[in-house]
Amino acid sequence: MPVHYNGDRFAGSSSCIPCHKNIYQTHVESSHYNSSTIVNGQTLKNHFDKWSNQLELTDVEVEVARDEQTYVQNTYSKTTGGLIDKSNLDVVIGSGVKGQSYLTFKGDSLFQLQASYFRLIDSWINSPGFPNHKYSRPVTDNCIKCHVTFAKNKNFIGNTNVYERESFMYGIDCERCHGPLKKHVDFRSGNLTNSTGDVVIKIDTLSRQLKMDICVQCHSGLRAIQVKDNPFSFVTGERLDKYAKNYNFGRPEAELDVHGNQYGLLKSSKCYKNSATMSCTTCHDPHQNQRGNEEHFNSKCIECHSTPENLHTTSNFNSRDNCISCHMPLFPSQTMKVKLGDTNDETSVNIRTHLIGVYIDSILQNKKNEGSKS
Ligand code: HEC
Ligand code: HEC
Ligand code: HEC
Ligand code: HEC
Ligand code: HEC
Ligand code: HEC
Ligand code: HEC
C-alpha cells in the first residue's frame, strides 16, 4: 500500500471489512468505487462481447480486439490498410453510467486511447476532444485526480504523465474521502471501545465548508489551478481552497456548467444560501448507489418544505412526489458532448442541474432582488 504525501500509509478498503462490513458492501456497488480499474477479462468482458468493436474515422479505422489475456486497440490506415499502432487497454476510466475511456501504459508513461465507449448509443466513439486521426493524449494528474484514490507522479507537482505504476489505488475508495487510515486500522485491531488516540476524523463534527470540501475536490469543475503541492495532497479536514482553485471564479451562476460543477450550482441556490446545514450528504449517502431513487430525493425536499401544497398554485402542482423534475431539471451538458462517428453532429449527455429553483419551460425564473452573491 502506498504512503500519502502527509506521511500516513493507506490500508485499502478490504481491510475495513471486519468492522464496517455493511458500508463496504454497498460502497463496492457505487459508481465511485467503479470509476477506475485495471482492464482484465472480468472488468471488460461482459460489455465487450456486446459491442461491435469497430470505429470508423476519416483517415483511420480503429478496432478494439481481444489478444489472448489482454485487450488491444489496433489502428489501421484507411489508405494503405496497414497497422499504424497497437496499444494495450490497461486502465478503464468511468463506471459506465455515461461511458468509459481507456488508458494505456507505454513503459511508465500513461496515455488516453482514441476509442471510448458511450452509453447513450451503446457503442464506441472517438474520445471527446480527439481529432479524427491517430493521436495520443498524455494523462497527467490533472486528468486522473478525480477518478483514482491515489497515484504517485514522477514529478511532485503532478504535471507529467510518468508514474510509479505500483502506487495506483484504482477507484474512488474509502480513503479518498476519509484519508489514509492504516493507523486507524492498527489502533482499532483488538480495541473496539476506547477512542482516545484514534486518528480517524468524524466527518459529521466538521464545519459545513470542510464537509463540502471532500466532495468539492471533484465536483466543482476542473480546479486546474494548483496553488499548493499537488492534486493528491489534500486530506479531509483541510480547507480545499488552500490547494486548488478554478479559472472560472466570478462567472455568473447561469454559466456554470451542469456537468461536474454541482458545488457551484448548489451554492447559488436559495436552499443552500438560506439554510445553515444543507450539504451534499443531505441528499446523497456517499456509501450507496442512489441513482434513479426519486422517492428518496423527493423525501429530502419535503424534510425542509413540509407543506409543498401551500407553495404552489393548483395548475402547476399536483403531486408530492415529483419535486426534482420541476426544480432540478435535466439539461444537456456543455462539456460532456461527443461527436458521433464521422459526422460533425454533437450529442450531449443530460445532467441534473444542482441550481435548485423555479423553472418554467426549462428557463430559470429569476425573481426580484436576487443577485448572485454567494
Ligand atoms: C478493527 C476494527 C476496525 C477496522 C479494521 C476499521 N475500523 Fe473504522 N472504526 C472502528 C471503530 C470501533 C470506530 C468507532 C466507531 C464509533 O465511535 O462509533 C471506527 C470509526 C471509523 C470512522 C469514524 C466514524 C464516525 O463516527 O464518524 C470512519 C470514517 C472509519 N472508521 C473508517 C474506516 C475505514 C475507511 C477503514 C478501512 C480503511 C476502517 N475504518 C477500518 C473500527 C474499525
Ligand atoms: C475535476 C474532476 C475530473 C477530472 C479532472 C476528470 N473527470 Fe471525468 N468525471 C468527473 C465527474 C465528477 C464525472 C461524473 C459526471 C458528472 O455527473 O458530473 C466524470 C465522468 C467521466 C466519465 C463518464 C463516467 C461514467 O461512468 O459515466 C468518463 C469516461 C470520464 N469522466 C473520463 C475522464 C478522463 C479521460 C479524464 C481526463 C482527460 C477526466 N475524466 C477528468 C470528474 C473529473
Ligand atoms: C465519496 C466519499 C466517501 C467514500 C468513498 C467513503 N465515505 Fe465514508 N463517509 C463519507 C462522508 C461524507 C461521511 C459523513 C456522512 C454524513 O455527513 O452524513 C462518511 C461517514 C462514514 C462513517 C461514519 C458514519 C456511518 O455512516 O457509519 C464510516 C464508518 C465510514 N464513512 C466508513 C467508510 C468506509 C469503510 C468506506 C469504504 C468502504 C467509506 N466510508 C467510503 C464519505 C465517504
Ligand atoms: C476523487 C474524486 C471524487 C470525490 C472526492 C467525490 N466524487 Fe462523486 N464522483 C466522482 C466521479 C469521477 C464520478 C463519476 C463516477 C463514474 O460513474 O465513473 C462521481 C459520481 C458521483 C455521483 C453520481 C453517482 C451515480 O450513480 O452516477 C454522485 C451523486 C456523487 N458523485 C456525489 C459525491 C459526493 C456527495 C461526494 C462527497 C461526499 C463525492 N461525490 C466525492 C468523483 C468524486
Ligand atoms: C436543508 C433544508 C432544505 C432542503 C433539503 C431543500 N430546501 Fe429548498 N429551500 C430551503 C430554504 C431555506 C429555501 C429558501 C426559502 C425562502 O427563503 O423563502 C429554499 C428555497 C427553495 C425554492 C425557491 C427557490 C427560489 O429561487 O425561489 C425551491 C423551488 C426549493 N427550495 C425547492 C427544493 C427542492 C425541490 C428540494 C429537494 C430537491 C429542496 N428545496 C430541498 C431549504 C431546503
Ligand atoms: C437537495 C438535494 C441534493 C443536494 C443537496 C445535492 N444533490 Fe446531487 N443530486 C440530487 C438529485 C435529485 C440527483 C439526481 C439523481 C438521479 O438522477 O437519480 C442528483 C445527482 C447528482 C449527480 C449525478 C448527476 C447526473 O445527472 O448524472 C452528482 C454527480 C451529484 N448529484 C453530486 C452532488 C454533489 C457533489 C453535491 C454537493 C455539492 C450534491 N450532489 C448535492 C440531489 C441533490
Ligand atoms: C409541475 C412542476 C412542479 C412540481 C412537481 C413541484 N413544483 Fe414547486 N414550484 C413550481 C412552480 C412553477 C413554482 C412557482 C410558484 C407557483 O407558481 O406555483 C414552484 C414553487 C416552489 C417553491 C417556492 C415557493 C416560493 O415562491 O418561495 C418551493 C419551495 C417548491 N416549489 C418546492 C417544491 C417541492 C418540495 C415539491 C415536491 C413536493 C415541488 N415543489 C413540486 C413547480 C413545481
Question: What would you say about this model in short?
Answer:
By secondary structure, the protein is of the alpha+beta class.
Throw out a few tags for this protein.
alpha+beta; 4-stranded antiparallel beta sheet; 19% helix; 25% strand; disordered C terminus
Structure overview:
Keywords: Signal. Residues 140-179 form the Cytochrome c-552/4 domain. This is C-type cytochrome. It holds the Pfam family Cytochrome_C554. It comes from Allomuricauda ruestringensis (strain DSM 13258 / CIP 107369 / LMG 19739 / B1) (Muricauda ruestringensis). This protein is an alpha+beta fold and 374 residues long. It folds into 2 domains: 13-190 and 198-206, no CATH class; 248-364, no CATH class. 19% of the residues lie in helices and 25% in strands. It has helices at 21-27, 41-50, 141-144, 174-178, 182-188, 208-216, 262-267, 270-273, 280-283, 294-304, 323-327; strands at residues 36-38, 54-56, 60-67, 70-77, 83-88, 91-93, 99-106, 109-112, 115-118, 123-126, 137-138, 148-153, 163-170, 225-226, 244-245, 330-339, 346-352, 359-360, 363-364. The strands form 6 sheets. Strands 1, 6, 7, 8, 9, 10 and 11 form a 7-stranded antiparallel β-sheet that branches. A hairpin with a 4-residue loop joins strand 9 (115-118) and strand 10. It is globular. Mean pLDDT is 87; it is low at 368-374. Bound molecules: heme C (7 copies). One heme C binds at residues 215, 219, 262-263, 266, 278, 280, 282-284, 291-292, 297, 300, 324, 328, 351-352, 354.
